[in-house]
Amino acid sequence: MDDKQVNPLLKSALELGPVLAFFAAYLLLKDRSFVIGGTEYDGFIVVTAAFIPLLLTCTGLLWRLSGKVSKMQVVTVVLVIVFGGLSVWLNDERFFKMKPTLIYMIFAAILGAGILQGRSYLEYVMEGAMPLRHEGWMILTKRVAMFFFALAIANEVIWRFFTTETWVYFKTFGLTAALFAFFMTQGGLIQKYGTEGADKT
């Protein structure tokens, strides 16, 4: 199937909308509790229950419009269903909070396995967006794997030792800011190993 062009604003809305909606709904419902089927659920669990179908809907629309969904998005959706579902079913918010840890550990493990084989799986995902020579991709892949591992540890520390509200802010803004800051600091590597620079030498 050929990839279809999707309006960038619509694409961003479908990718970021569920997370922002989760954040906004949590702020509205964090101090409330709801009795459903004789069981009392706090606002976090209710918002988590609503987040699962919203994420599925947005991901499905993105696939329908663009003709593709990245492997990273698929893994994220599966883990949201599993761990979000467990949180709702068992009325225990800890399972949903563990999800980012597992996502980043899985990505770090996959990248690490590729490194041991002398391959950069990151190159297959981002080659079009970041033209680098193979040695540059290998260095970047090692850095990203270590970065994902650090994010997994950070998530564990935040959800275990801080309040739920702190974790929600960290999940919504902290992780995104960390990813942005990380790639902003890779300018030297891109300049050194970029294929455009290699063509000029």
From TrEMBL:
It is found in: Cell inner membrane. The chain crosses the membrane at residues 12-29, 41-62, 74-90, 102-122, 143-162, 168-190. It is a multi-pass membrane protein. InterPro entries: YciB. The keyword Magnesium does not apply. One of its GO terms (cellular component) is plasma membrane. Keywords: Cell inner membrane, Cell membrane, Membrane, Transmembrane, Transmembrane helix. Its main location: membrane. Belongs to the YciB family. Plays a role in cell envelope biogenesis, maintenance of cell envelope integrity and membrane homeostasis. This is Inner membrane-spanning protein YciB. It comes from Pseudoprimorskyibacter insulae. The lineage of its organism: Bacteria, Pseudomonadati, Pseudomonadota, Alphaproteobacteria, Rhodobacterales.
